[in-house]
Amino acid sequence: ILNVEQSPQSLHVQEGDSTNFTCSFPSSNFYALHWYRWETAKSPEALFVMTLNGDEKKKGRISATLNTKEGYSYLYIKGSQPEDSATYLCALRTGTASKLTFGTGTRLQVTL
Amino acid sequence: DGGITQSPKYLFRKEGQNVTLSCEQNLNHDAMYWYRQDPGQGLRLIYYSQIVNDFQKGDIAEGYSVSREKKESFPLTVTSAQKNPTAFYLCASTETGGAYQPQHFGDGTRLSIL
Predict the structure, then answer these.
(1) pLDDT in tens, B6-33
(2) In angstroms, what separates the C-alpha of B39 from chain A's closest C-alpha?
(3) Pairing between strand B109-113 and B10-13?
(4) Residues of B in contact with A34 (CB under 8 A)
């Protein structure tokens, strides 16, 4: 079983703060790295699918970078808002089979 | 609207009973997945199917069974052999035509043992 690790496990920031979390994964057999946002009482929602070393993707105030050689991805949130409160999951795909291995998530809470 | 429907939202099982969780999608996706979530753990893959009439075991398939007779449907049966079935179960689907498609998720079913 692959080991996909996320840190920190949880994070509590003030509105307006910028923040970032890490996803670490084994760099061998890399195929793609997914990021999802999972709000309470909702289903997980895809943020990014990243495939190339050095990839950088952006969606509004959220962006992500990828380093496949050293096996990590960073997710950044600029100017956090209360609606950003959620669990952020990363997941690794290692081959042509479309299955993913998920990390345990980073739980973000943004307060006023 | 296209999406994934899981039912029921809450399910209670007596010891020794089999129960079936429903997952239906109208996204015309080829691949479907079942995950289990326990407190403090990530989503763990139970079974997945990349095409109708074919499925593969995930990381924690023991005590579970699936079928994929139709493209739209991927039911999961939690058998009496599953010793610790209390958990939150999520179903997902994705296109397999594109190489880098995200997964789309249902709202989940919470299973509890009476």
Answers:
(1) 999 999 988 889 999 999 999 999 999 9
(2) 10
(3) parallel
(4) 102-103
